[in-house]
Prior knowledge:
- By secondary structure, the chain is of the alpha/beta class.
- It contains 16 helices and 24 strands.
- The strands form 5 sheets. Strands 7-6-5-3-2-1-19-20 form an 8-stranded mixed β-sheet. Strands 8-9-10-11-12-18 form a 6-stranded mixed β-sheet. It has a 5-stranded parallel β-sheet with strand order 14-15-13-16-17, sandwiched between helices.
- Helix 7 packs parallel to helix 8, helix 10 (304-314) packs parallel to helix 11 and helix 15 (499-518) packs antiparallel against helix 16.
Amino acid sequence: MPNISALHEKIRIFSLGGLDEDGKNMYCVEVGNQIYIIEAGIKFPDEKESLGIEYIVPDFTYLIENKNRIAGIIITHAHDDVMGALPYLCKQIKADIYSSPLTAKYIRRVMKEENIRDIQIHEVKRHDQKRIGKHKVIFFPITHSVPEAFGIAISTSQGFIVYSGEFIEDYTSLSDAYRGDFTTPAQFRNEGVLVLMQDSKGADCTGHTAPYHRIAPHFANILEKYENKRIFVSVYTQSVFRIQELIDTCISFNRKILLYTEELRSLIKDLEDIGYTIPSSVLVDVNQIDHISNVVVLIGGTGKAVTNLLSNICNNEVDDIDFTSEDVIVLATPVLPGVEREFKQMENDIYKEGGEVIQLDKVIRSVHPSQEDLKMMIFATRPKYYIPVKGEYRKLVMNANVALDMDFSPSQIIILDNGQVATFENKKLKSCAMEMELHDNLIDGKEGWDMAGVVLKDREILSTDGVMILAIGIDSETKKIINGPDVQTRGLVYLKDADYLNTDVSKIMEQTIEEAVKNKTYNNLDTRNEIRDKVAKYLSNKIGKKPMILSVILEINTQQ
């Protein structure tokens, strides 16, 4: 007999990040009383948010409150937007992590750096079936820009919940580490697919992504055109397939290669695990490049780091490379959201030095499913409901339109916001209620990340309205004023216009202390706070500014 309780188990699907935004992906599938976490990513702040903030991670409050119900964390591939938040999550909860061998190696490295212990990391192969918690999870191979990427399907009493990952259709000769398999998703429909969740970042592109994601043909033209020139190529270290294309093209043109950053050298060493090696005769040391006219220098990094490093090289602010106007710069990195300002500055620096710039990122598609790729997976799985994920709202809508083109009714397509929960019972959508008020966690360095929001607010005030510092000395016994007040401002008003403000603020400070002493309500902390509030109100009314106000009352022992 079928398990009656299983037939009635409720399924809840929601996102803690990644919807109506680019990055910070974290999706949760709740089956009965168990929570399956899919991805745990970061995003980079935009210019408005970037006052010292390095990146942003999801709000983990719900997961912390329900940590005993977490069955596992599944990471589909080694990109920051799907795994960069893991250390911050794992400092709050202890749950098993499931990922491919190569991605697991990266995760272990990060956990060691962050001194996080007691986390079980399970390596899964791309055709595995595992029981995680109470449910079977099937891992199926997909083609993405990193090796060993996979999609997943969670088996439930209401049908499969399928998360297709960041896949593309590419039937060109590929190594096993990149080759996708779409026969497995097609088999899910035999049991029935309740929900298909698909990446939306390429939903505005017609046709298939392949072969327009390949950089090799374009880079070959550059190597041929600039046969006797040094070429500097910037690339994100996590764009592994692109890096392999660049290296293989250099080898075919008999070009020497310098792997300039330690990240790139570590990556190539890691790729030996999947059988990818570079002949040692191809690689050169940085000390040799001044003697090789046609060397290719690969500059790798993540986010802002790679753009800033290239700027430093072009400005001759590194010790080991002398950049000249004869050098050619190839930008093989797409502009990530939140890095636009640094990217523009990098371009300016390059042009100022007279180097020639070629932007390949403008003619190459990123490795995300385009419209025909999305249709293929929909056709293969035939889901009852369709949920677009990953991307800005306009791209979620474009993804939804793909399903509409395939004769889905609007009632079968679910566009969610972060914190909104789609609830399914008896194979039907019951509700889409907004249940969680989420707040971004702003990461300012490695420590004190939970306080970064407060720090950011202070920085915003300092950058717009400045600061006023008030200091006064009083007798520790009598509480009579014996020194000051002294008023200092920075970034608030022009110095010559500050006299009347200083006079008025000084009076407020003196009167507040004298009244508190007279009424026998004086307390150092409370009085300082009262001064700050009165001065803030005065400045807001007088000049329309709300600076940061620091008030200091020094109690001096005059009996010594």
